[in-house]
Amino acid sequence: MLKIVLKRFGTALVLILIGLASVIFFMKSSKPEQANASTHKHASSEDHKECAAKIAGKALPPLSLRDTQGGEIPVMTISERQPVIVIRYLGYGCSHCIEQLLALQKLADTLKSKRVRVIAFSDDTPGENRNVMTKYQFDPAIFTLASDPAKASAYSLGAVYPETDGTMTELHVSMVVEKGLVRFAHFDSKPMMDVQALLAKTLAY
User: Fold this and answer.
1) Using CA atoms, how far apart are residues 92 and 149, in angstroms rounded to an integer?
2) Is 60 exposed, middle or buried (0-12, 13-18, 19+ CB in 10 A)?
3) pLDDT in tens, 68-111
4) Exposed/middle/buried for 101, CB within 10 Å: 0-12, 13-18, 19+?
5) To bridge 147 with a disulfide, which of 49, 66, 94, 152 should be the other Cys (CB 3.0-4.6 Å)?
6) Total domain count, the chain
């Protein structure tokens, strides 16, 4: 009887160990997938730098932008004639974004003398952009406020990232584009307020 009990106990122990091994294997194999689901490429400033590095030095990704009259803005063509500062901001409702544009406006004389164009785009409509142009008296010879329908251009740059919980991470972008190439790119959760440094990057080419 004792032998039978010991045999049955041994068999049960083996089955338990096999079960535990299967559970451990499953947990290890599923762990990377869980990590990937809970993290994303825009988690930190270092990740933002990686996003910028993906397009810096390369041809400008396709942008589908509309001016205040609804016409298409040929950013690539404009950059062949003069350096362009391209700003992706979060719209008129973002006060820090407007501060960045106003800081650039203070450099209007330098921008004009160096033939630098500023094209800033957001989800705002052409009509809303017309109002902002008028309210802050942006010089249309230097500044263009553009509309990005359905965030197509933001997606093209990698500035919009859908999260697993259904929310959306949206980044501010500041770029220098010259002859179709992205000479400098800055991605972050807030606008690049050091516009003097941005101008210096523009004039370096």
Assistant:
1) 15
2) buried
3) 999 999 999 999 999 999 999 999 999 999 999 999 999 999 99
4) buried
5) 66
6) 2
| Same domain assignment for residues 83 and 9 | no
- For Cα atoms 82, 189, 151, give the angle at the middle one, nearest 5 degrees: 65
Q: What is the mean pLDDT of residues 31-37?
A: 34
Domain harbouring 101, CATH code: 3.40.30.10
The residues that bridge with 168 in the sheet, in sequence order, are: 162
- List beta partners, residue 59: 181
The sheet that has 181-188: what strands, in order across it? 143-147, 117-122, 84-88, 172-178, 181-188
Q: How far apart are CA 109 and CA 127, in angstroms?
A: 27
Residue entry with tokens 């205040």: 68
Q: Which residue range is the domain that position 120 belongs to?
A: 45-203
Q: How far is CA 84 from CA 28, 112, 128, 196, in A?
A: 49, 12, 22, 15
